[in-house]
UniProtKB/TrEMBL annotation:
Coiled-coil annotated spans: none
Gene3D superfamilies: SpoIIaa-like domains (3.40.50.10600)
Domain of life, per lineage: Bacteria
UniProt-listed Pfam families: SpoIIAA-like
The protein, known as: STAS/SEC14 domain-containing protein
InterPro entries: SpoIIAA-like, SpoIIAA-like_sf, STAS_dom_sf
Lineage: Bacteria, Pseudomonadati, Bacteroidota, Cytophagia, Cytophagales
Length: 121
């Protein structure tokens, strides 16, 4: 499930994913981030993962391809999670993002949000 967080505004998209991430969730995410990239030239992203149990393989592949094509249009990206594989995923996609990806633990979510918003911890 994809939840749009209230901190979403202007060039910043803040989302929380949980449970099962579907193709429709990934389509919505891509539409929202693409719109910000188009309007502002770049987009900041806060991406929080809580109790994420499954990502549909097709959705994961489509998202990876989107990141490869549009990676340079991302500004600051914070991935917030609770599992080792989520940290690995952040490290894996970091090189294709303009400013890389910073990974934060769930306990650091306020620090992550502040960093995405202001560039400071």
């Amino acid at each position: 499930m994809l939840e749009i967080l209230p901190e979403t505004h202007d060039d910043m998209l803040a989302v929380r994913v949980s449970g099962e991430l579907t193709n429709e969730d990934v389509d919505l995410y891509r539409d929202l981030i693409r719109g910000r990239m188009k309007q502002y030239g770049a987009a900041r992203l806060y991406y929080e993962m809580v109790n994420l149990t499954w990502v549909k393989p097709g959705a994961a592949l489509e998202n990876a391809l989107f990141d490869l094509v549009h990676g340079r249009a991302y500004d600051r990206v914070a991935m917030v999670g609770e599992k080792v594989w989520q940290k690995w995923a952040a490290n894996l996609i970091s090189p294709v993002k303009k400013k890389g990806v910073r990974y934060f633990e769930l306990a650091e979510r306020e620090q992550a949000m502040r960093w995405v918003q202001t560039g400071q911890e």
